[in-house]
Specification:
Layout: H1 2-26, E1 34-42, E2 45-56, E3 59-67, E4 70-73, E5 75-80, E6 83-92, E7 95-106, E8 109-118, E9 121-131, H2 157-164, H3 182-192, E10 203-204, E11 207-208
Antiparallel strand pairs: 1-2, 1-9, 2-3, 3-4, 5-6, 6-7, 7-8, 8-9, 10-11
Length: 209
């Protein structure tokens, strides 16, 4: 009789321990609050940006920094079971560009996918983020007066790269299905009954004049 009572007591303690541990695990969801360094992969090109997130009373807010000191507030942000989603909107030449981000938090990293919408066109890419020092948000690299004064090093390489690379909105022209000959343009414009835009350049392709 005593053996059964002892076994029942051990079993009850084991169940209590398991339930307690489970409660502790469930009570510690991933924390989005902080500064995140994002790497976005566009084919063979990688772009660096920064994300600042705050979670207060269940409300997720933040800013996305494509360059230090130049933040864009995120919209429609939320976190659900460790999955973060938000949007950014930018206006360029009277057109609004929307980018939707979705990523899963795991400790100090986020893995996800982003979609850029422009009219009826959609472009997607993979992105990854890791927690970073908040001071990087104010570390702005200033361009030197002449190219010969640039002292490129491992410490300022990423800042210079981000300073030189074009913004996503600045690459919108590449999405236009340009024709390479004047004849093809004339035929296409005539078939569509639309005006023709002729874009010509003069000089070396690495430094057009």
């Amino acid at each position: 009789m005593r053996r059964h009572s002892t076994a029942s007591l051990y079993l009850a303690l084991l169940c209590f321990a398991l339930l307690t541990c489970g409660s502790v695990l469930l009570a510690a969801p991933p924390k989005p609050t902080g500064t995140w360094k994002i790497k976005s992969n566009f084919g063979s090109r990688t772009r660096i940006s920064m994300l600042k997130l705050d979670l207060e009373e269940g409300q997720l807010t933040g800013e996305l920094f494509r360059r230090p000191g130049e933040g864009t507030k995120i919209e429609n942000a939320r976190i659900d079971d460790g999955v973060v989603t938000f949007q950014t909107r930018r206006t360029f030449r009277r057109q609004t560009f929307t980018t939707e981000y979705r990523g899963t938090i795991s400790g100090d990293t986020i893995q996800g996918q982003a979609e850029f919408k422009r009219g009826e066109q959609t472009r997607s890419w993979q992105w990854a983020a890791e927690r970073s020092d908040p001071s990087i948000l104010t570390a702005v690299a200033e361009a030197p007066p002449v190219a010969a004064d640039i002292d490129l090093s491992d410490d300022n390489y990423e800042a210079w790269r981000d300073h030189i690379l074009p913004e996503l909105s600045e690459m919108a022209w590449a999405e236009i299905p340009w024709l390479s000959t004047f004849k093809d343009g004339i035929l296409a414009a005539d078939a569509a009954d639309k005006p023709l835009l002729l874009w010509t350049m003069n000089g070396h392709p690495l430094g057009c004049t």
